[in-house]
UniProtKB/TrEMBL annotation:
PANTHER family: LEUCINE-SPECIFIC-BINDING PROTEIN, PERIPLASMIC BINDING PROTEIN OF ABC TRANSPORTER FOR NATURAL AMINO ACIDS. Pfam families: Peripla_BP_6. CDD domains: PBP1_SBP-like. The keyword Nucleotidyltransferase does not apply. Residues 1-23 form the signal peptide. InterPro entries: BCAA_transport, Leu-bd, Peripla_BP_I. Keywords: Amino-acid transport, Signal, Transport. GO terms for biological process: amino acid transport. Belongs to the leucine-binding protein family. It comes from Bradyrhizobium canariense. This is ABC transporter permease. Residues 27-364 form the Leucine-binding protein domain.
Length: 400
């Protein structure tokens, strides 16, 4: 009798002791929430899916002895759609971490769910500096760039070179508002003036009325507080209106190599832009760019390189922590340095901002380019402590 009871007790005790281990042995699952069909699809989209796959492959494809899973979905750039998918993934589909988030509105919406479910999310596409400011979360990391960093690298460089009066074409949602706000602060701090702005809907095809208002302002600089397809359309139509020929200049605050590729060097030449990554910076960036090109048939944007970096860093942190527990993994992500094909000098702060060098580039003239994707001349490397907002100034409640 004792033998039966003791055996039963021993079995129960063994199950109790190993259950935490078994729980952590459940397959690790990453969800990519992206824009696959609209204005930001070239910036992230399928390229972010491939970058995530590359990171998983480079890590070894397994965590705790089981294959790492990945799912993806199109958020249609709608916060309610993003929230519905994220809720389903976290509630019923066992997703451990969500990455990408193509717009600031979708990122901020999913961040609220991330707090509710205490799950990790890493923003590699959305740009609002509010993500690590007043809206910061203990479970969110902001990886690639933000409106503060871009405004301070591009905006300050342009004002120093005489571009001291500005008018903004602003995408009418959180991202565009953040770009205009942060760049306006830089312009005014440098002694410049903001003469006005006009708001346009996301994914605008016809910029004629907005450009006419910008032209009428007689500002030296027309600041494009938008991104992706909106930036491309605005620059193309500004060319048709003869705005640059008439003496005004365009400042693309948030621009990507995919935008330059779509525009062509004839239209994009001379633009001063900032990026966190460029494929032709060094041996590591060139190696990653070549691998990405082989898979996607185009060079990676900074967001796609950052998605690779963030996924790989997350996987390293889970492995080092020995668990998928959110708080433990986030602590390990902050502890480990970020050194990979995206950056050699990254670190994750307590407000969720991953800080690293940013780069100021000028787009080459057609005759200066040696071939496809050879688009940038490096003007300056901006150290992390100069590019990103000081920790104390963001208004993040997590910062003591």
């Amino acid at each position: 009798m004792c033998r039966i009871i003791c055996a039963t007790l021993a079995a129960g005790l063994t199950a109790f002791l190993i259950s935490p281990s078994l729980a952590q042995q459940a397959p690790l699952k990453i969800g990519v929430l992206s824009d696959f069909s609209s204005v930001y699809s070239d910036i992230g989209g399928q390229g972010n899916v491939e970058a995530t796959k590359m990171a998983i492959e480079d890590f070894g494809g397994q965590m705790f002895g089981k294959p790492i899973d990945m799912v993806s979905a199109d958020v249609l750039n709608k916060p309610d759609v993003a929230s519905t998918i994220a809720r389903k993934w976290w509630e019923t589909e066992g997703v451990d971490m969500i990455i990408d988030l193509p717009t600031s509105a979708t990122a901020l919406a999913v961040m609220e769910l991330s707090k509710q479910y205490e799950k990790i999310m890493i923003v590699t596409d959305a740009a609002s500096s509010d993500i690590t400011g007043k809206s910061c979360s203990p479970y969110t990391a902001h990886w690639t760039y933000d409106t503060y960093a871009n405004a301070h690298t591009v905006g300050s460089a342009i004002v120093k070179n005489g571009g001291d009066s500005w008018f903004f074409l602003t995408a009418d949602y959180v991202f565009g508002h953040s770009v205009e706000r942060d760049t306006s602060d830089v312009v005014k701090a440098a002694g410049g003036k903001v003469l006005g702005s006009v708001k346009h809907p996301l994914n605008t095809a016809d910029f004629s009325s907005f450009l006419l208002q910008a032209q009428a302002s007689k500002s030296k600089i027309i600041g494009l507080a938008n991104g992706g397809g909106d930036t491309i359309n605005a620059i193309k139509q500004a060319g048709e209106f003869g705005i640059v020929a008439g003496g005004q200049n365009l400042a693309a605050i948030v621009m990507f190599i995919s935008d330059v590729h779509s525009l062509g060097l004839k239209l994009a030449q001379g633009l001063i832009i900032t990026e966190a990554y460029y494929w032709d910076l060094n041996e590591k960036t060139r190696a990653f760019g070549k691998r990405f090109m082989e898979r996607v048939k185009r060079m990676p944007t900074m967001n796609q390189a950052a998605t690779y970096s963030a996924t790989l860093h997350y996987l390293k942190a889970v492995q080092a922590a020995g668990t998928k527990d959110t708080k433990t993994v986030m602590a390990k992500m902050r502890e480990l340095p970020v050194k990979d094909a995206f950056t050699d000098n990254g670190s994750l702060r307590e407000d969720g901002r991953m800080v690293h060098s940013m780069y100021l580039f000028q787009v080459k003239k057609p005759e200066e380019s040696k071939g496809p994707w050879d688009y940038y001349k490096l003007l300056a490397e901006v150290p992390a402590d100069q590019a990103f907002r000081p920790l104390k100034d963001g208004g993040c409640p997590l910062v003591k």
